[in-house]
Amino acid sequence: MMTIETLKLFRDLADTGSFSRAAELNGVTQSAVSQQLKKLEQTFRCPLVNRGRDGVTLTEEGASLYEAAKKISALYSSALASIVKSHPGKSAGSVRISTIYSTGLYLLQGYISRFMSARPEIKVSVEYRQSEQVAADVQAGRADFGFLACAPKKQGDISYLPVCAEEMMLAAPENSEAARAADIGRDALRSLDFVLFDKAYPSRKFIDDFFGKEGLALKVKMELDDIETIKTAVRSGVGASILPVSAFGGGDSRGIKAVKFRDLDIRRTVYLLRSRTRKLSPAARHFLNTVFEKGKPLCPERTD
Fold first, then answer.
1. Facing residues of 97 across strands?
2. pTM of the model
3. Contact, 134 vs 126, CB < 8 A?
4. Of the candidates 171, 144, 301, the residue with the CA atom closest to the CA atom of residue 243
5. Domain spans of the chain, in order of start
6. Which of 20, 56, 23 lies closest to 41 in space, CA to CA?
7. Main-chain phi, psi angles of 211, to 5 degrees
8. What is the CATH number of domain 1-89?
9. Is 37 exposed, middle or buried (0-12, 13-18, 19+ CB in 10 A)?
10. Does domain 165-268 have CATH number 3.30.565.10?
């Protein structure tokens, strides 16, 4: 899912020809710019930029997207200015979010889209961070909210609010025997090779603990630190993986089949982090209410 912020990042990258400058203009890291570019290229299934000694230049496809991004960004800015002008004395405000990649790239985008549809005058900035950095950002006041998955190590004056329990599914290469099955039982898992997160990641600890309690020792062939890289390895036939259901609807999921577990119910809890001691701004309060809005599904479900 693309957002206004993603298109603005791409526009600024094209205008400046520099990852560092685009990051500075948008108040994010260079890594965040790279991740968003990667997501766009996966969405359009083609390279959008060329990297060289003289900086970044656009491919033919990138130039087409750049023109669209400029128009969309201009329309959004115009609409925002009009809304703010019609409410004199009211500050639109902003919401700063720090999140891990696997939550920020997929699940979080649904909340942001819902929020921005209701409150287009409020700016939302997202910083993609490692797990231990998310809590630190909230603790230090660099972020209004953090998003983490699995049981976190609680620290400081931070509230960990469970958002949802997201279903985990087997990610199998689409031409594999596992992908041809309607579902997969625990015994069949013993014969598979797996590509999982590095052991330093909470999601990996959660998976190891879950299957350890089930008496299953997974054969781990490769460990990686990025969910899109894991999907690439699965697509290449290195092995299967265990991923949140939202990962199959975002990024590049070509060549991968999501397979339900027949006799295992594995779900990772996603948490929203906020400071207990800092008062939320009106904009941040609106975002919090959006995330926990009654009657709205919090986690995606896969029924096919």
1. 126, 145
2. 0.70
3. no
4. 171
5. 1-89, 165-268
6. 56
7. -75, -25
8. 1.10.10.10
9. buried
10. no
